[in-house]
Amino acid sequence: MTEYERWLHAGLDDPDLTEELKKIQDQPDEINDRFYRNLEFGTGGLRGVIGAGTNRMNVYTVCKATQGLANYLNKHGKSPSVAIAYDSRIKSDVFAKQSAAVLAANGIKAHIYPWLSPTPTLSYAVRFLKCDAGICITASHNPAKYNGYKAYGSDGCQIALEMADEVLAEINSLDIFTDVKRMDFDEGLKSGMISFIKDEVIDSFLFEVMKQSVLPAKCDGLKIVYTPLNGTGRVCVTRIMKMIGIENVTVVPEQEFPDGNFTTCPFPNPEIKEALQKGLDLSAKVQPDLLVATDPDCDRCGIAVNQHGEFVLMSGNEVGVLLLDFIARNRVLNGSMPKNPVAVSTIVSTDMAAAVAAEYGIDFVRVLTGFKYIGDQIGLLEEKGEADRYIFGFEESYGYLSGSYVRDKDAVDASMLICQMAYDYKQKGLTLVDAMDALYKKYGYFENDLLSFNFEGEDGMNRMNQIMDTLRSHAPEEIAGYEVIGWSDYEASQRCDGGKKSEITLPKSNVLEYRLGNGSKLIVRPSGTEPKIKVYLSGKGDDKAASMEIIEKLRSAAPKLLGI
Questions:
Q1: How far apart are CA 511 and CA 529, in angstroms?
Q2: Closest C-alpha to 418, from 280, 273, 314, 493
Q3: With contact defined as beta carbons under 8 Å apart, do 288 and 223 qualify?
């Protein structure tokens, strides 16, 4: 309440915040939710609901975070610089410009895109401009009420844990009103401390994406319906499609241009069918070969395939496996497969990828959830002068990257490769659904599913912690009638198989994995960006029906396992 009163009477720059605070004067629960904690800053930066308070995304929490980053940079180097990008969300442009103003006031050169831009172009700009850090204002695929702040290191990858901890310590030492330096944005432009990123950076980015092409032929005759889901993807994705020879692209009109309210897709996530409904409706009329959708910050890509007039949604795991096989097969055919190739995926993504990698002699690396860990693997290869060994990385949540030019998932690259893959199979009289069925028959029927359980507010956060603590103290002996034969606790860095314990060498993470006697597994992980616990299900059977039966049993057992 003390902090609430301080904000209420502080004379805030943003009148929206003061008005919001006045409206909740007689609502103690609302006040508590906004002020019971500071919005958490970690390796993913900040993400939260837009509004007034220390537990909300607003100019004050954003500027405090940027001041912490500025303090860190000034302690670790001379004349640092930072690249900044932002998406189509509410107040994204305001947060981006205010971040630039804070950096400039601290003697740090800020390079900011003059228009909304995909997240991968931020990762690219950091490296292209040789910056010491990057900031991307985005909440990715979250609902409209959210916004976020991603911090990047000089390698173009989201900041590592050590840097995040140091920046957090700087943030925690600051008073949100009195310790933050800011100058007028226009003054920063005049002084040269703030500058707009030029078109050449985007041109260079698209040139690097084109270098990831694995087909020499143009994709003549491929028909596409595309939706950027009211986000940042329209310009870059349609340009790359044209560059690979696709002329017949119909953009979903209701979702073509930026709209932070996401009026036609309240959950602008290409993993969710409802987000693609406008695209599916248009596809039913246009009958393209493929519907392609990118999320608001254009780092995730989802598709629906025209299977004899019906449009079939494909999962992130399926597209990831298809792309790994497509890239490997064509790089072998055209002689561009490197010696000792490397592919990377996450612990929650399908085990089928390991089988495909083995077929092509690819070194397959598993990392923690979050594309930054895939980016870290590229960086390790680059340090050894072996970045060319990396051929592909993906995560089940629709994130893909086939080159080392950025250190984050890239839906521009993914859109290009998916379209090329669809064209390649079309020449053989096959769809991507047909291609996936062939891979299932070859490698086995791997089915995967994801369950999400929401826990809003302070009580929800406490409940999530309680669930994870209970699972650790009372480990299940069976799940859905299947014996638990092994488990991994990534927080304790410990694995147990057949009663024998061993160390996990990955960074610590609040994740629990249970391996079952029938070859299936279940993983429990609190989201790092949303107030929810995610449960990842994996089943492998003799055929699709058997695999789905296992998944259904695991779905039914998950709530009981969590105690909800």
A1: 14
A2: 314
A3: yes
495 and 465 Cβ atoms separated by less than 8 Å: no
* Among candidate residues 87, 94, 90, the one with its CA nearest the CA of residue 66: 94
Would you say 84 and 111 are in contact if contact means Cβ atoms under 8 Å apart?
Answer: yes
3-state DSSP assignment of residue 86: strand
The DSSP letter of residue 456 is -
DSSP string over 314-330? E-HHHHHHHHHHHHHHH
Q: Which of 140, 397, 509, 520 is catalytic?
A: 140
Strand-pairing partners, residue 484, are 516
Neighbours of 232 (CB within 10 A): 32
Neighbours of 27 (CB within 10 A): 11
Q: How many CA atoms lie within 13 A of 254 on its CB side?
A: 14
Q: In angstroms, what CA-CA distances link 145 with 44, 97, 203?
A: 18, 20, 32
Q: Residues 360, 309: contact at Cβ < 8 Å?
A: no
CB 520, CB 549: distance < 8 Å: no
In total, the chain counts a number of residues equal to 564
Distances (CA, A) of 93 to 98, 119, 171: 9, 14, 22
Question: Is 154 annotated in the active site?
Answer: no
Strand partners, 153: 133
Structure tokens at 533: 């616990």
- Give the pTM: 0.93
DSSP 8-state symbol, 51: S
Q: CB under 8 Å, gap of 24 or more: what pairs does 355-361 form?
A: 355/443, 355/444, 356/321, 356/324, 356/325, 356/328, 356/439, 356/443, 357/324, 357/328, 359/328, 359/443, 360/328, 360/329, 360/332
Residue 488 to residues 312, 485, 491, Cα–Cα distance (Å) = 35, 11, 9
H or E element at residue 120: helix 119-128
**What is the mean pLDDT, run by run of 10 residues, along the chain of 564 residues?**
94 92 94 93 88 97 98 96 97 98 98 97 98 97 94 95 94 97 97 97 98 93 97 98 97 97 94 96 98 98 97 97 98 96 96 96 95 95 96 97 97 98 97 97 93 87 92 93 95 92 93 93 86 92 92 96 92
